[in-house]
């Protein structure tokens, strides 16, 4: 229930759908948005209410466990909840409040650089990888006059990546991290 509320209402279904599109490669039907935001939470609340109404002390057959056994059972059930709330409290203290604790770190997002598109692309430098092998002595790659304007292509790609329009370029950009060029497995073949 808490996860549904956090994803559908706090994080937002629009962002979540964009993330699913980035991970899966296809758009998820809005049927699932209705399920996440409305249907599933209502069903879960009804199940919780029904469980509370029908609650009876645990036992085995006609034997009802003593109160202290019931307490141990509830204690075991509450351990994950206490750990979750304790971790939340530690993070709130560590980051100085809810607003700072709920902001993502700069490295948050897809682990692979080639998957960092859309709103995750802001933290990477996009460099052009030419197919041309001829590097002059000064380290500059000579560009053919037939090749398109690379700077304009990069600007268009960055703008389109921010809106996740799926703009495709003739040349594939690669991400640069710590001075090393990182390529996807498809580009290495």
TrEMBL record:
Keywords, sorted A to Z: Glycoprotein, Membrane, Transmembrane, Transmembrane helix, Transport
Annotated spans, Disordered: 146-189
Cellular component terms per the entry's GO annotation: plasma membrane
Chief place of localization: membrane
Membrane topology, from the record: Multi-pass membrane protein
Localization: Membrane
GO molecular function, one term: L-amino acid transmembrane transporter activity
GO annotation (BP), single: amino acid import across plasma membrane
Annotated transmembrane regions: 30-53, 73-93
A Pfam family it matches: SNF
Family statement: Belongs to the sodium:neurotransmitter symporter (SNF) (TC 2.A.22) family.
UniProt protein name: Uncharacterized protein
Origin species: Mytilus galloprovincialis
